[in-house]
């Protein structure tokens, strides 16, 4: 998102890089990472104007591995997952 905020890429490219590309790398695209009828729709809503610090302990993945630690990013406003908000 920093590239988008810096005007280096369009919002559509940012969305593709953050949703489609990781799923393609994990071999689960297009069932995940694509918003269309028949696919799994997990959505994350953010407020790009509100920033929060996300410590490593807050990561919700199995590996707990990230290139960044304690970094500032857009604030999470909500999540739609498994048909629930």
From TrEMBL:
GO terms for molecular function: hydrolase activity, acting on carbon-nitrogen (but not peptide) bonds. Residues 7-59 form the Amidohydrolase-related domain. Coiled coil: none annotated. This is Amidohydrolase-related domain-containing protein. It comes from Salisediminibacterium beveridgei.
